[in-house]
Design a protein that fits this description.
This protein is of the alpha/beta class. It contains eleven helices and six strands. β4, α4 and β5 form a beta-alpha-beta unit. α2 packs parallel to α3 and α8 packs across α10.
């Protein structure tokens, strides 16, 4: 796996690079701004770019804009976007534009090497990764007529994992059940919630998250 790391905070950037190198990942470049990121992606053609959302000069959404450009101009390059704070709107903005080969994680998670490597592997394989904290926040919204009340406890568990971007196989492994059991749960969940999407498509992540934004 060939990776570029983009973060203007030197200690954070070097910390991520150190974790990746220790895990045997080939870090082909590290940069501290969005312009340098785009230049290095074009030069190195990495498998994935790890990108901080807020970078110079305004520290607003330069990293997110760069991530969107990378997915548009270099469709073979996956992007894992990092944020210091929980910003579901930024995650949705990225997912609505590109539903595959993208991920959004809070920075606090990436210093667990296993979590970071798993997320990078998944986005490189074409999956979508969504931070569990975002999923919990969306699930925790109060509604007078809560559609989640229609779901069983097991269906709640499956739906949360779907929203994180987990495949049916990964969900089956996590819950220690058969693949066909997960497929049946996903079908029932979509029917109960009226989510019009294919259980086999990664776009089901966006469909589920969009459902919770209503």
């Amino acid at each position: 796996m060939r990776v570029i790391v983009a973060d203007d905070a030197m200690l954070t950037r070097e910390g991520i690079v150190h974790l990746l190198v220790d895990a045997g990942v080939d870090v082909v470049a590290q940069v501290d701004n969005a312009e340098g990121l785009l230049r290095e992606v074009a030069r190195c053609s990495p498998d994935v770019a790890v990108v901080d959302i807020k970078m110079p000069p305004t520290h607003t959404d330069e990293g997110l804009v760069a991530a969107e450009r990378i997915r548009h101009e270099h469709p073979d390059v996956a992007v894992l976007v990092l944020s210091q704070y929980l910003e579901p709107s930024y995650a949705m903005r990225l997912l609505e534009t590109h539903a595959e080969k993208v991920g959004y994680l809070l920075k606090e998670r990436v210093f667990a090497a296993a979590v970071l490597i798993d997320a990078l592997r998944r986005v490189c394989e074409g999956e979508t990764v969504v931070d569990p904290t975002i999923v919990s926040r969306l699930f925790g919204r109060h509604r007078d007529d809560d559609p989640l009340a229609r779901l069983s406890r097991r269906e709640h568990e499956v739906l949360a994992l779907v929203a994180e971007g987990r495949s049916n196989r990964a969900i089956a492994d996590r819950l220690h059940v058969a693949d066909r059991t997960v497929e049946a749960h996903v079908t029932q969940i979509f029917l109960k919630l009226g989510v019009d999407t294919s259980p086999a498509s990664h776009r089901r992540v966006l469909a589920v998250l969009s459902f919770f934004r209503r």
